[in-house]
Amino acid sequence: MPTFTAPDGTTLAYHVTGEGPPLLCIPGGPMQGSVYLGDLGGLTAHRTLIRLDLRGTGRSAVPRDPASYRCDRQVGDVEALRVELGLERLDLLGHSAGANLAVLYAVRHPERVDRLALVTPSVFAVGLGITAEDRLETARLRREEPWFAPAQASLEAITSGGAKPADWDAVAPFWFGRWDDEARRFRAAEQRQRNDEAAALYASDGAFEPDATRAALADLPSPVFVLAGAYDIAAPVRVMKEYAGLFPQARLVVQSGSGHFPWRDDPDAFVAALAAFPGQVPAPPPGT
């Protein structure tokens, strides 16, 4: 397991798997170890995945200063890894909350980004609004599922501001294209992989300046690929269309039957979309 030193002296770890052009992957959570990304549904057959364990997660060390967990302060970690790898320019993938860090890196270092892939991205860095109806409308696509009624009731409680602690676990099925034993194991592992202290500080005051970020992205020269899950209540399709519109060169793909982790729900469709990433903005996978 290779390591490198962040600008503040924290030792950070990364993991290298696969064959083909390198793709630097930033995990979500926020602040979850990168192990959950796995091989991204078999993308390792086409790309060399470089999975960064963010500070205080996975095999990376805990920093001396907890304030350094703030998203914008981790841009320097990504740049330090680029230098460590000896890459002049990066293909960069951010999943979920990790997309915020990927976008901030692209804004600060646009000359270092060849292509940017944002998979079911969080929108905090760009300040887009997700309404309760966005989430509820997406959730209703699952109305035939046996678990739907109690999960929907909990989602309504959350979106109305009246949630109880149990409601957050009850909506877990909405995150997955299939709510089965494998998804339950994946969900349980997530809880162990996330650094809760770091997660609480990731989006703390000062982390994001959405107006300035959107203005900078309007001039980003890199091709951008936004992949949404049709069932994803965290990143609903309406908002993902708006997100893709922030970039001058962006393509949006909506992966049918998929939630927040599309490489798990339909690996073939996911890899078909991402496999073209080295040479061009990807074409939509079959069936999307």
Which key phrases capture this entry?
single chain, 288 residues, alpha/beta, eight-stranded mixed β-sheet, 11 helices, globular
Shape: globular
Order of secondary-structure elements: EEEEHEHEHHHHHHEHEHH
Strand order of the largest sheet: 1-2-4-3-5-6-7-8
Q: What is the count of β-strands?
A: 8
Regarding quaternary structure, how should these chains be classified? single chain
Can you describe what's shown?
The chain is α/β, with parallel strands linked by helices. Helices cover 34% and strands 16% of the residues. The chain is built from eleven helices and eight strands. The chain has helices spanning 75-85, 98-108, 132-139, 148-159, 165-170, 181-193, 196-202, 210-217, 237-244, 262-265, 267-275; strands at residues 3-5, 11-18, 22-26, 48-53, 90-95, 113-119, 224-229, 250-255. An eight-stranded mixed sheet has the order 1-2-4-3-5-6-7-8, sandwiched between helices. α2 (98-108) links the parallel β5 and β6. The radius of gyration is 18 Å and the shape is globular. The model is unreliable at 279-288 (pLDDT under 50).
Outline the secondary-structure elements.
Elements: E1 3-5, E2 11-18, E3 22-26, E4 48-53, H1 75-85, E5 90-95, H2 98-108, E6 113-119, H3 132-139, H4 148-159, H5 165-170, H6 181-193, H7 196-202, H8 210-217, E7 224-229, H9 237-244, E8 250-255, H10 262-265, H11 267-275
Parallel strand pairs: 3-4, 3-5, 5-6, 6-7, 7-8
Antiparallel strand pairs: 1-2, 2-4
Helix pairs in contact: 1-2, 3-4
